[in-house]
Amino acid sequence: MTGVREVGDTAPTETTRDTAEPTAARGGEKTARGGRGWLEKGSLSRFVLTRLLLFPPTVVGAGLFTFLLVKIIPGGPAYAKLGEEATPEAIARIERQLGLDRPLPEQFLAWLGGALTGDFGESFQTGTAVSGTIAAALPVTLELVVIAIIGTVLVAIPLGVYAGKRAHLPSGRWIRSASGLGLAVPDFFAALVLITIFSVWLNLLPRLGYTPLTEDPVANVYHLILPALPLILGGSAIVMRQVGAAMADAMSSDYVRTARAMGISERTVTWRYAFRAVLPTILNVVGLLALGQLGATLILEEIFVLPGLGRTLVNAIGQLDYPVVLGVVLVYVCIALVVNLIVDLLAGLVNPAIRRGTS
Amino acid sequence: MAIARLGSHEDARDSSCSSSPSLLEVDDLEVSIGGTQLLSEVSLTMRAGELVGLVGESGSGKTLTGLSLLGLLPPTAAVTGRIWFEGVDLIAADQSRLRDVRGRAISMIFQEPRASLHPARPLGKQITDVIHAHEQVPAADARRRAVDMLGMVGLPDPRRVMDSYIHELSGGMCQRAMIAMALVCGPRLLVADEPTTALDVTIQAQMIALLRRLASELDLSVLLITHNLGVVVDLCSRIVTMYCGQVVNDDSTSQLLDEPQHPYPSALLRASDISFDSPDDWSGISGAPASPARPPRGCRFHPRCPHAQERCAENAPPLEPGRHGGRTRCLRSDELTLQGVSR
Ligand SMILES: Nc1ncnc2c1ncn2[C@@H]1O[C@H](COP(=O)(O)OP(=O)(O)OP(=O)(O)O)[C@@H](O)[C@H]1O
Ligand SMILES: [Mg+2]
């Protein structure tokens, strides 16, 4: 998880720096207008390519970091497997079996070589291929995050726009206070309250269970609503605040004043002018939120007993099941990298200076 | 007391001017924001086709006056008085009426052309937005009109400008585009809030020439708000001076240059660089401008006025017809003879 945090935390600064760079450009149809060409310095395509080239070193770095972290944890997988009263001989045998007696660099390189070809080794505990475990768990987590993000966007953006437009009125302030409350409530507590309300009292939503999307899409989504709700509530509080503040700024900006001074309708002013101007902010906030919610699935998968990546990781850490821990962390890192790349790409596309390559 | 006297003068002026109906008549406008009174006793009149300058130091309430004309004050503002425009009281008008007036009857352009236009919306769209806000026209017609208007404000290659974003144009071009946006629906009055301040000197001159040409071609009245007396003197036939949230003087440009009737515009003139004869006679105005939130007792200008007497600190002067025409707000206007700057 540390690797994920790191990537998530450093990304926003990079994002702002890169998108603020006025010389960035995308090649293509508009190059005739004085824009920069495909892969030319400062072009969006070049920026994306640079990012893609940075992927492998980042992934390897994160893998090494996690590898060392796991090794620092006292005890060892052999103890975890055999229990307290294991004899030293039995432990040595198991460690030899698992390849843990070899020097660390050798262990790491062996793992890395496999990982780069998609082979994360076998679980120390079950002996099954880690890639298979991940393939089964990943969709659960991704679905949970996607549902949470869609729900958050649907709830928070209209509310944020509403609050931003009424920042000076009691209704706007009331929404802000409500979002403050949402920020203060931890996910697990919200989950417990929601379970009590929707599952125990109202008996509307199932508390446990998971059906794969491929089997029964309706049952699948039905089972994921309750786990996603705490994420939607917490995420909405964050997004609403940011969108509200950005909208309030935009609504009192000079260009909105100009649009109003020419009689442009309030609806056009709100959506085509103010909202359009806060779109980059929204993209960044939602991108960061996606990473935050990816982390938050850890505890929600535990509470709702969902067979996702988070639960897999927590179990694997408990059993010091190195291959599983490493594999899952690597997947988290890759998701974070891809989310960041998508956010930066979208931010570039909604910025005309970058899209057109003019400055 | 002062207000009552002002009222009687307004009546007198109205009857004398009834032959040429005014386009805009602001009577006793008072604006407070968040309980602080920022404009008081603001009165001014404009006739159709007239170019009027509105000058005064920073914070004197010029922008607020301009924004009041369009009902664009912040939502926390409280407004009293009358703003008659073509027979309609804009202060009593509701939002949909005001929205109709904006852009089609009165438009306003602003100081920072770059900040005042949307950074991520093509300029052509911003202009056609105005057309669509007021008229039901097909998109192609709106576009054609926008292109014509861009040509009219002197932008070369209007078609290219239509698809440009502000970062692709210079400040002067952005200001021209904003003027096109303001005039595309044919308003009768343009409030130009320091349209040249952010531009360099050569562009300033072009902008003034443009406003002069547009005013005559489109039969447009212009209320030009500016710090720069040189610019108003160039363009406007009449100059309204504000100080500390009040109109203190309202004179023809030639009268103001020959013999100002109020010490404040007189000091402003001498502080600006348009004294043609004696450039050495440069003197600023002592002291800082008074804040309209905490106006001085009596005449608001008296703490800085070189001609102030004791009574100036006691009695607030009303805005009265001046000796040489126009209107002025000075207790001593009858006895003072102030030095002008013109030849
Ligand atoms: N929204 C607002 N809330 C509170 N006070 C305001 C607001 N807008 C303006 N003021 C105050 O009203 C006074 C007049 O402001 P205004 O902007 O009209 O001055 P101005 O003459 O246009 O000055 P400048 O030349 O600097 O543009 C100033 O003292 C200003 O601080
Ligand atoms: Mg101003």
Automatic annotation (TrEMBL), chain A:
Protein name, UniProt field: ABC transporter permease
Membrane-topology annotation of the record: Multi-pass membrane protein
Ranges for domain ABC transmembrane type-1: 138-343
PANTHER family per UniProt: DIPEPTIDE TRANSPORT SYSTEM PERMEASE PROTEIN DPPB-RELATED
Gene3D superfamilies attached to this UniProt entry: MetI-like (1.10.3720.10)
Annotated Gene Ontology cellular component terms: plasma membrane
Domain of life: Bacteria
Lineage per the UniProt record: Bacteria, Bacillati, Actinomycetota, Actinomycetes, Streptosporangiales
Annotated transmembrane regions: 52-73, 134-159, 180-201, 221-240, 277-300, 320-347
Entry keyword Transmembrane: yes
UniProt-listed InterPro entries: BPD_transp_1_N, MetI-like, MetI-like_sf
Pfam families: BPD_transp_1, BPD_transp_1_N
CDD domains listed in its UniProt record: TM_PBP2
SUPFAM superfamilies: MetI-like (SSF161098)
UniProtKB keywords: Cell membrane, Membrane, Transmembrane, Transmembrane helix, Transport
Family designation: Belongs to the binding-protein-dependent transport system permease family.
Residue numbers spanned by region Disordered: 1-37
GO MF annotation list: dipeptide transmembrane transporter activity
Localization: Cell membrane
Automatic annotation (TrEMBL), chain B:
Keyword Nucleus among UniProt keywords: no
CC terms in the record's Gene Ontology section: plasma membrane
Subcellular location: Cell membrane
Secretion signal, residue range per the UniProt entry: none
Protein keywords: ATP-binding, Cell membrane, Membrane, Nucleotide-binding, Transport
Lineage top rank: taxon: Bacteria
Domain ABC transporter per the UniProt entry, residue ranges: 24-269
PROSITE patterns per UniProt: ABC_TRANSPORTER_1, ABC_TRANSPORTER_2
Any one GO molecular function term: ATP binding
SUPFAM superfamilies to which the protein is assigned, alphabetical: P-loop containing nucleoside triphosphate hydrolases (SSF52540)
GO biological process, one term: peptide transport
Keyword Transport in record: yes
Region (Disordered): 1-21, 281-300
Membrane topology classification: Peripheral membrane protein
Family (UniProt): Belongs to the ABC transporter superfamily.
Classification via PANTHER family: DIPEPTIDE TRANSPORT ATP-BINDING PROTEIN DPPD, OLIGOPEPTIDE TRANSPORT ATP-BINDING PROTEIN APPD
Protein name in UniProt: ABC transporter ATP-binding protein
Annotated organism of origin: Halostreptopolyspora alba
